[in-house]
Design a protein that fits this description.
The structure is a homodimer of 204-residue chains.
Chain A lengths: L15 H16 L6 H8 L13 H22 L5 H18 L1 H8 L9 H21 L3 H24 L9 H22 L4
The structure holds a DNA duplex (30 and 30 nucleotides).
DNA sequence: AATCGCATGTTAACGTCATTAGCATCAATT
DNA sequence: AATTGATGCTAATGACGTTAACATGCGATT
């Protein structure tokens, strides 16, 4: 009957779970992950500090939910990356990864900005799998053996992730750096890696 | 008169500052950055919870001190990386970065595992500069223009950092993964990037 | 339509932590 | 020996995460 998140009248909220995730995204964007607090999110939504516990076991589970959302958005972006050849698709996937991270800073920060012990949050692990898959598929078309494909994927993910993380940190020099050139450099590095594999003859 | 950190008798500690950093490293190694608490470090050292504030303005400054130490160790490792050619030095620097991160997990986690707003901790920023320098010097010998050297350095740092971060996360598949092969792959990716630059003719 | 139950919120605690203020102790200098 | 600055302590405050016990109201059952 109501559009999600618009209710907030009366005893019950309507969709507190989604509202909490949205609030978390906003607050993480403002104060970073460690500066994000359940109490402030609750205040902002006009509910008691205990209310979130009906939807999340603890604070970290809410952060994990944000991370899951981040995985969804990034996975979609990476999966949608096109390219004539598999090598191009792989490079464009890396570019998409960095661009998506930059365009969704709070989400990405939630995904990587904590020591979130991914092993303790299977929902995040599962949400991250499609992202890896999106890289693995073109990689399989490039290499022969499955093992090589996995290794290539790991290298490409590391390249994309490294660029994205440094972009978040503003470690790429002072001031807010434009994301596009950094993303382009990640794509270029991936192209170089594939090209080098090709000339080494260790692929199909 | 005393060896550092061995005193701990009487009212004064001897070298509480260093002891706190050591305790922080240990605790971060055990519980991660967010699980590290000033109170527990104080307890472990047998001092009051207020004592640390004589040496660090707040909790984050202690974490920053650990990060500074991390930069020192990593910078040393990267700087010591040898290689016949500049390209080899760059690749070996990347390998050293990943290896040093893996060998000093708690330190590296303190360096990257928080949203530490490096801009707010100039001491960390300054400690990180030599690391970038160690990459920049061989890069300068490879490229012609300084701008290209900076770009190459950023790409190489991103590659090394990406591999190191994913290694920390255990994102490289399940279980504790051996660091050496991952470091080797980072080095290989760097070689590929330099090789590609070379064949593109855009360098000296 | 009245009722009942479960999902969802609330209030009221508790314990931990970061942080600060004011006091105590020690070591070295005068 | 007296002084002083660095270093540590005690005590208190306020925010937060978390839980327990109670309240509310939507929706299904009768």
């Amino acid at each position: 009957m109501w559009v999600v998140g618009v209710k907030k009248r009366g005893y019950h909220h309507g969709d507190l779970r989604a509202a909490l995730i949205d609030a978390a995204v906003q607050l993480i964007g403002e104060h970073g992950v460690k500066g994000f607090t359940l109490a402030e999110a609750s205040r902002q939504l006009g509910v008691s500090v205990a209310a979130p516990y009906r939807h999340f076991a603890d604070r970290d589970r809410l952060v994990a939910a944000v991370a899951v959302q981040a995985c969804g958005i990034i996975g979609e972006a990476v999966g949608a990356a096109g390219g004539e050849t598999p090598a191009e698709r792989l490079a464009e996937a890396a570019r998409a990864y960095v661009s998506a991270a930059a365009a969704n800073r709070p989400l990405f920060v939630a995904l990587v900005g904590v020591g979130l012990d991914k092993r303790r949050y299977p929902e995040v692990e599962e949400a991250a799998r499609p992202v890896a898959q999106a890289f693995l598929e073109p990689a399989r078309l490039i290499t022969g053996a499955e093992e090589d494909a996995v290794h290539l994927t790991e290298t490409v993910v590391a390249i994309a992730h490294g660029h994205a993380v440094l972009l978040m940190d503003a470690s790429f020099g002072p001031g807010p750096r434009a994301a596009a050139p950094v993303a382009a450099r990640a794509a270029h590095a991936v192209r170089a890696v594939v090209e080098c594999l090709r000339s080494a003859g260790s692929l199909a």
